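Worked example 3 (structure in, sequence out).
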């Protein structure tokens, strides 16, 4: 869980706006682009949390890449996924495709949001 907190902190610090008093440049990020970045991170963190809670309740991960009760592999896979998604968004934005970058970010949240919702639904059915 400590690794998840560190990962969250690093990603959120990387996506914060300039400090108060710093002038924004003409090519500054739109609020929707920033929201898409945060959504990518939040969706994957929700998936991590729901998966770990499921493991604690005795559920089995069906994704063979992650395995069962392998916290390090889960965080590594999710960190790689977030890194690829944020890099793709950055490259699109840098090449002048601001709207595409935002929509790619928002679209990339669909699968982890579905996975988290599915996991939480399974977790709720388990006896405590």
């Amino acid at each position: 869980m400590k690794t998840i907190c560190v990962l969250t902190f690093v990603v959120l610090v990387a996506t914060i706006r300039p400090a108060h008093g710093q002038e924004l440049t003409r090519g500054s990020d739109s609020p929707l682009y920033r929201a898409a970045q945060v959504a990518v991170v939040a969706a994957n963190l929700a998936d991590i949390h729901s998966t770990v809670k499921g493991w604690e309740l005795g559920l089995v991960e069906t994704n063979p890449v992650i395995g069962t009760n392998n916290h390090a592999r889960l965080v590594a896979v999710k960190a790689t996924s977030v890194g690829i998604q944020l890099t793709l968004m950055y490259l699109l934005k840098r090449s002048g495709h601001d709207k595409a970058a935002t929509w790619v970010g928002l679209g990339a949240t669909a699968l982890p949001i579905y996975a988290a919702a599915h996991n939480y639904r399974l977790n709720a059915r388990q006896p405590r």
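Notes: Residues 31-56 form the longest helix (26 residues). Helices lie at 2-14, 31-56, 71-94, 98-108, 110-125.
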